[in-house]
Amino acid sequence: MTALARAGFESTLTPNLTLVLVVVGLVAVGTALALDRSLVRVLLGMVLIGNGVAVLYLVVSGRAGRAPFVGEDPATMSDPLPQAMVLTAIVISLATIGFLLALSYRLWQISGTDDVPDDAEDARIQRLARDDETSETYDRSEESTTTSDERAEAGESRG
Amino acid sequence: MGDVPVPNLLPLPVLLPLLGAALALAFRRSDRLQRIVSIAALAGVVVVAAVLVWQTDVSGPQVLWLGAWQEPLGISLVADRLSALMLLVSSVVTLLVLLFAIGQGHADSDDEVARETPLSIFHPTYLVLTAGVANAFLAGDLFNLFVGFEILLFSSYVLITLGGSASRIHAGTTYVVVSLLSSALFLIGIAATYAATGTVNLAQLAIRIGGLDPGVALVLQLCLLTAFAIKAAVFPMSAWLPDSYPTAPAPVTAVFAGLLTKVGVYAIIRTQTLLFPASPLTDLLLWAALLTMVIGILGAVSQSGLKRILSFTLVSHIGYMIFGIALSTQAGTAGAIFYVVHHIIIQTSLFLITGLVERIGGSTSLHRLGGLALASPLLATLFFVSAMNLSGVPPLSGFLAKIGLVDAGIAVGTPLAWVVVAGGIVTSLLTLYALSKVWSQAFWRPLSEAREVAELAAEEAADEAEQFEQAELDAGRRPGGAATITAAPTGVALAVDTSPRALPRMMLGATAAMTAVGLLITLVAGPLQAFTERAAADLRQRDPYITSVLPEEVRR
């Protein structure tokens, strides 16, 4: 097991080019998807980025070898540490993606679409613009721009 | 180590809340048992953390290798002065916020709204969150730090969307996606670090990164820094915070504001001092600090909702901590640590106060609040003290923390450092401005004036049904007010309540205790400052950490 500690470590890692390309492809496609408006696409993008990162750990573990069981010759087995790490990361991302799926379903239940909503400032500016169009007697100086927002907020967060 | 004959306590801050969470989940039918379990677990963590502070101060960093692997291979938990101090402050804060939440749950238990927010889930999740925070503070390797982050993030996902109402789902979406992205970046950083050095143990990394090509080291540093900066809400990566925090329930927002960003700041302090001591990024970090402070506080000045104002001051004041870290001097690091301690407590107490303001006034919008100083003088006092403390009015701890940082900045003396010092002072004044605006409108302005404004707003509100809903809510939430719901005529009740409800004692007590802890920091500022100086000295020397973690033969 001493080889694993890599005492006196020198980076002898030769990355596997195919795997590197796979990582690049997955992360690039994932990023493109994550920039989309639909939450499900964002979610798929996150899944792809997560998978890309997982493959990155395979690159990092160096040359492929035999399964790292106790008793195996350290010279021929693959590095178990990145595998342990990536397994943890995969489990975590599985749970998170599950949660995000539930979240997007709930978002769809509430708003009938899975589009990521505008942030509060954007929504506020849009509301101002809309009110300006529809109301002639609109007195902007007296209007609290946060009224309905805050009311909704007040109603909910008291629970 | 080992001068002190105390068994190794390191796993307890993680284990106690986790076991507590399991028990709380098992007792989900009984509120009472859940409360007892949660309070006991968190009180236990406070005690353990206090012992750890003493232990690390007397006999140096405490280390525990888990799983009986050969030493540098396994997972290590390490507490040095910095970790122990962070742990103590965070456990005190989580305990007090828990009491506040219990008070709130108690007050709402007869209420219809309470059914929307399932408290049986709240307790276990909250405990897991605490375990994650403790794990992040105690992590001795990068990957365990990642796991700590994930534990606390996942529980924060649940807490921020508690009840699943529209506004919370909207806020939660942003929050979860941003957190996922930062986690992916962190993972990439860990992979790159492992590829370059063959280890993820922090102490071992401290030795090996020194031998790396400076370009490679810089890439690792930037990757980790970006991941942590997203979590800490440093300026270009801070936009998610004011959008996601304000909608959560008051205790949740309070604990998030106090702790979660500070865990990111802690990770930045740890990696910057231990792994990259000769930081080539001082200028970059100073710019980030300046922009975080100034842009954050300008955001706060332009807001009219109390929660959003506080969220923006939270972002803004992260800049102070980054400033201290960026200086990469001992005084700067000590100042940053002191600021973290001060800010965790003050920001939490301000958000707890906001929770009470919302109960008493029915809103957190400055347009709709008024006369709170008359309605509850105690609450007004608490707000005033905390607000002055945050803005750095002498002689409170906010002033001392800022003076420490300004001193450190002047000692460095580069033109950019002077600019950031000036930016820090302007930010402090603008914080005072933003919070005095809150004071004069919500607390000081007579209720009649507020009512006029609110009446006008109410008249203009086109949606009558919405008003009725609000009236119903207001009436229904007053103790013994259930009968008045039917009697209440539609559409006349205003959010500014003429007969404010009495504040639940437990909530008020927890908030007062939180503010008192803030004042206590001012009282013990001398010893605390000395402690942070020692902690910063440890961090800058790096030796105490490395020698206590690594066995001799690995150290080379």
Automatic annotation (TrEMBL), chain A:
It is found in: Cell membrane. The keyword Membrane applies. GO terms for cellular component: plasma membrane. Residues 127-159 are annotated as: Disordered. Gene3D superfamilies: 1.10.287.3510. The keyword Membrane applies. InterPro entries: CPA3_antiporter_subunitC (IPR050601), NUOK/Mnh_C1-like (IPR039428). Belongs to the CPA3 antiporters (TC 2.A.63) subunit C family. It comes from Humibacillus xanthopallidus. It comes from the Bacteria. This is Multisubunit sodium/proton antiporter MrpC subunit. The chain crosses the membrane at residues 17-35, 42-60, 80-103. It is a multi-pass membrane protein. Keywords: Cell membrane, Membrane, Transmembrane, Transmembrane helix.
Automatic annotation (TrEMBL), chain B:
Residues 139-422 form the NADH:quinone oxidoreductase/Mrp antiporter transmembrane domain. It is a multi-pass membrane protein. The keyword RNA-binding does not apply. One of its GO terms (cellular component) is plasma membrane. InterPro entries: CPA3_Na-H_Antiporter_D, NADH_UbQ_OxRdtase, ND/Mrp_TM. GO terms for biological process: ATP synthesis coupled electron transport. Pfam families: Proton_antipo_M. One of its GO terms (molecular function) is NADH dehydrogenase (ubiquinone) activity. Keywords: Cell membrane, Coiled coil, Membrane, Transmembrane, Transmembrane helix. Residues 447-474 form a coiled coil. Its main location: membrane. It is found in: Cell membrane; Membrane. The chain crosses the membrane at residues 6-27, 36-55, 82-101, 121-139, 145-163, 175-196, 216-236, 248-269, 284-302, 309-330, 336-357, 369-390, 410-435, 506-525. Belongs to the CPA3 antiporters (TC 2.A.63) subunit D family. This is Multisubunit sodium/proton antiporter MrpD subunit.
